[in-house]
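Problem 12. The chain below contains 109 residues. Write out its predicted structure in C-alpha coordinate notation.
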Amino acid sequence: MQIIFETYRLEKRITNTSKRIRVYGSLVSNGIYLRLSELQVANNLSEISNFPPSRLHLLVGNFRGCYAVNVTKNVRMIFKGLNQGGVATLVKANVVKILIKEISDYHDK
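Solution.
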Protein backbone atom coordinates (compact mmCIF):
# COMPACT_ATOMS: atom_id res chain seq x y z
CA MET A 1 0.00 0.00 0.00
CA GLN A 2 1.00 3.57 -0.50
CA ILE A 3 1.68 5.44 2.74
CA ILE A 4 1.23 9.20 3.05
CA PHE A 5 1.45 11.42 6.11
CA GLU A 6 -0.84 14.11 7.46
CA THR A 7 2.04 16.57 7.92
CA TYR A 8 5.58 16.95 6.60
CA ARG A 9 6.86 17.07 10.18
CA LEU A 10 5.23 13.70 10.97
CA GLU A 11 6.68 12.22 7.78
CA LYS A 12 10.22 13.26 8.75
CA ARG A 13 9.79 11.94 12.31
CA ILE A 14 8.66 8.55 11.06
CA THR A 15 10.76 7.99 7.94
CA ASN A 16 14.11 9.21 9.30
CA THR A 17 15.48 6.47 11.59
CA SER A 18 17.59 8.70 13.83
CA LYS A 19 14.76 11.22 14.28
CA ARG A 20 12.29 8.40 14.96
CA ILE A 21 14.51 7.00 17.71
CA ARG A 22 15.14 10.45 19.17
CA VAL A 23 11.43 11.37 19.24
CA TYR A 24 9.83 8.04 20.18
CA GLY A 25 12.63 6.01 21.78
CA SER A 26 14.07 2.74 20.50
CA LEU A 27 11.20 0.42 21.53
CA VAL A 28 8.47 2.50 19.89
CA SER A 29 10.73 3.27 16.91
CA ASN A 30 11.21 -0.44 16.26
CA GLY A 31 7.45 -1.02 16.46
CA ILE A 32 6.80 1.82 14.01
CA TYR A 33 9.31 0.34 11.57
CA LEU A 34 7.68 -3.10 11.79
CA ARG A 35 4.14 -1.76 11.24
CA LEU A 36 5.24 0.46 8.33
CA SER A 37 6.98 -2.51 6.69
CA GLU A 38 3.87 -4.65 7.13
CA LEU A 39 1.58 -1.96 5.69
CA GLN A 40 3.86 -1.27 2.71
CA VAL A 41 3.92 -4.89 1.51
CA ALA A 42 0.15 -5.39 1.86
CA ASN A 43 -1.95 -4.89 -1.27
CA ASN A 44 -4.91 -3.64 0.76
CA LEU A 45 -5.97 -3.31 4.38
CA SER A 46 -7.79 -6.66 4.46
CA GLU A 47 -4.34 -8.34 4.45
CA ILE A 48 -3.47 -6.84 7.86
CA SER A 49 -4.31 -9.04 10.83
CA ASN A 50 -6.92 -8.16 13.45
CA PHE A 51 -4.85 -10.18 15.91
CA PRO A 52 -1.57 -9.28 17.64
CA PRO A 53 1.04 -8.14 16.96
CA SER A 54 -0.50 -5.61 14.52
CA ARG A 55 -4.11 -5.88 15.79
CA LEU A 56 -5.80 -3.68 13.21
CA HIS A 57 -8.94 -2.11 14.67
CA LEU A 58 -11.47 0.57 13.79
CA LEU A 59 -11.64 3.52 16.16
CA VAL A 60 -14.60 5.42 17.61
CA GLY A 61 -14.99 8.68 19.52
CA ASN A 62 -12.50 11.41 18.62
CA PHE A 63 -10.94 9.16 15.98
CA ARG A 64 -14.16 7.96 14.34
CA GLY A 65 -13.47 6.87 10.77
CA CYS A 66 -9.85 5.98 11.50
CA TYR A 67 -8.04 2.70 11.95
CA ALA A 68 -5.18 1.91 14.32
CA VAL A 69 -2.52 -0.76 14.60
CA ASN A 70 -0.48 -1.59 17.68
CA VAL A 71 3.04 -0.24 17.79
CA THR A 72 3.67 -1.29 21.40
CA LYS A 73 1.41 -2.32 24.26
CA ASN A 74 -0.13 1.17 24.57
CA VAL A 75 1.12 3.12 21.54
CA ARG A 76 -0.90 3.05 18.31
CA MET A 77 -0.36 4.18 14.73
CA ILE A 78 -3.57 6.00 13.79
CA PHE A 79 -4.50 6.40 10.14
CA LYS A 80 -7.32 6.86 7.63
CA GLY A 81 -7.84 4.36 4.85
CA LEU A 82 -8.10 5.78 1.33
CA ASN A 83 -9.34 4.12 -1.85
CA GLN A 84 -7.73 4.35 -5.30
CA GLY A 85 -9.24 7.81 -5.84
CA GLY A 86 -7.90 9.13 -2.51
CA VAL A 87 -11.32 9.18 -0.82
CA ALA A 88 -11.59 7.96 2.80
CA THR A 89 -13.22 4.55 3.11
CA LEU A 90 -13.83 2.01 5.87
CA VAL A 91 -14.06 -0.99 3.52
CA LYS A 92 -10.76 -2.81 4.16
CA ALA A 93 -10.60 -4.43 0.72
CA ASN A 94 -10.86 -0.98 -0.94
CA VAL A 95 -8.12 0.66 1.16
CA VAL A 96 -5.01 0.87 -1.01
CA LYS A 97 -3.48 4.01 0.54
CA ILE A 98 -3.20 5.09 4.14
CA LEU A 99 -2.91 8.57 5.59
CA ILE A 100 -1.02 8.40 8.87
CA LYS A 101 -2.46 10.94 11.29
CA GLU A 102 -0.38 10.32 14.41
CA ILE A 103 1.54 7.92 16.60
CA SER A 104 0.23 8.13 20.15
CA ASP A 105 -1.20 6.53 23.24
CA TYR A 106 -4.78 7.67 22.69
CA HIS A 107 -5.87 5.98 25.90
CA ASP A 108 -4.70 9.13 27.75
CA LYS A 109 -6.93 11.43 25.67
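Discussion. The mean pLDDT is 95. Students who got a different answer should revisit the alignment rule from Section 12.3.
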